[in-house]
Amino acid sequence: MTPARLLIVEDELIARENLEHVLHKEGYDIVAVESGAEAFQELDRAEYDLVLTDLRLPGLDGMQVLQRVKEVSPNTEVIMITGYATVASAVEAMQKGAYHYLAKPFQIEEMRVLVRQALEKRRLRQEVAELKRQVQLQSSVPLIIGQTPKMVALKETIRQIAPLECTVLILGETGTGKELVAKSIHSLSPRAEHRFVAINCGAFTEELLANELFGHEKEAFTGARGVKRGFLEVAAGGTLFLDEIGEMPATMQVKLLRVLQEKSFFRVGGTLEVPVDIRILAATNKDLRREVEQGNFRQDLYYRLNVVTLEVPPLGERRDDIPLLCQHFLTKFAQTQGKDVARLSAEALDILMSYEFPGNVRELENILERAAVLSQGKVIEAAHLPMDLQQPRVQVWRRTRRKFPTLEEQEKDYIFWVLMQVEGNRSRAAEILGIDRVSLWRKLKRYGLSE
User: Fold this and answer.
1) Residues 104, 18 share a domain
2) Range(s) of the domain holding residue 417
3) 164 and 299 assigned to the same domain
């Protein structure tokens, strides 16, 4: 632990040396000066945990030292010492923020106790300030809803990598919440107090993307009337999130690679390098490895971005989170729309639990927002859901990163679907599946559906 830093301001040599000797033996880091002017210089040079100052000093007196301390370092404690104690000076010192007013002569042990108490007060104040800062940061962390094993593992990985400076590649289908993951990483990182800037690489032409990322110099092109700061500069000290990185044109990939390697860039039309201090997070719904193999994405950039990979599972792979997500969105809509929508009916929830959700969490949110608007009471019924969800339908397997689902995946999903239809009745489910209850129990345990 770093020893507390104390500044002693005392013009009497013997008194100054005695204080310095006693407090140095307590393990404190001591600086001792003999005038208010020297004290001012020290306060401008370094921060102190505690200042002990005599009231009467040549030139600048102790009250002025006290006032200066509170101006440059409000959390630094001050003990005022004087051989000419008066009620008026004591009151003035306390009003100006002194921790204690000590009259000479005093007992050494009394001084030791006062110093320890003053330092403890400062330590507690610092802890409270840090706790408040942590609470503010935590309250700004986006809420990732999910208790299924894949989501629990994802959230734990986010907590582990957030404090690091590594680049992160976030993979997932459209609508799974890749930007939410990126915001969580930023909010839990040391860069949280700086900006989080997101840009969709697929939403711009190559020229516009270069202009948005790097900015431009005055007269770099027709209409460029002044210098424009790009997102790389706007996000200085913070995080830049490059969504749909797989859509970035090849020439822009080269420029981004240089930014990652050199930590600098040139504005469009510029000749001076601009240093950049940012963390880059990227996301895509494409298989970048395959894009590299097909020559659509630079291999060196892929390896630069792929220091840590996070995969956000599609909603169809975490169906047990659907009730939690539904409740979260209904609470949100109740607040934003002013409607007292509290829950879904059993039939409406069954329909959502069996739906494939090609649009993932974003589609679920849109469905529930529409249902909340249409509902007249506290409960969302099946009739409030879109008509195509209400109609019986054949289950269609979506293509995943593998071309087709495995037989085991099909069996797991089918067993889950049968259980949903019979409301969890395992005897009835086993009968429909054509197996005995023991075999069903073994399959449920193997697939993690036994709870």
Assistant:
1) yes
2) 406-451
3) yes
Assigned domain for 144 exists: no
Which of the four pLDDT bands, split at 50, 70 and 90, describes residue 410? confident
Q: Is residue 192 part of a domain?
A: yes
Rounded CA separation 433/417 (Å): 11
pLDDT, average across residues 72-90: 83
pLDDT averaged over every residue in the chain: 85
> What are the beta bridge partners of residue 7?
31, 51
Give 2's strand partners.
none
Name the DSSP letter for residue 80.
E
Token reading at 190: 């040391």
Taking alpha carbons only, the member of 131, 143, 141 closest to residue 162 is: 141
Q: Are 50 and 122 in contact (CB under 8 A)?
A: yes
Question: Which segments within 160-220 are labelled E, that is strand?
Answer: 168-171, 196-200, 215-216
Report d(CA 417, CA 391) in Å as an integer. 16
Provide the pLDDT for residue 303: 93
Q: Count the domains in the chain.
A: 4
* Termini Cα distance of the chain: 48
Q: What dihedral do alpha carbons 334, 340, 341, 346 form, nearest 10°?
A: 150
- Which residue type, as a one-letter code, is found at position 141? V
Quick one: pLDDT at residue 401? 46
Could you tell me if 151 and 361 are in contact, meaning their C-beta atoms sit under 8 angstroms apart? Answer: no
- pLDDT tens track for 431-440: 888 888 878 8
382: in domain: yes
CA–CA distance, 89 with 314 (Å, rounded to integer): 70
pLDDT reported for residue 195: 92
CB 43 within 8 A of CB 73: yes
Residues with Cβ within 8 Å of residue 60, at least 6 apart in sequence: 35, 36, 37, 39, 40
pTM > 0.90: no
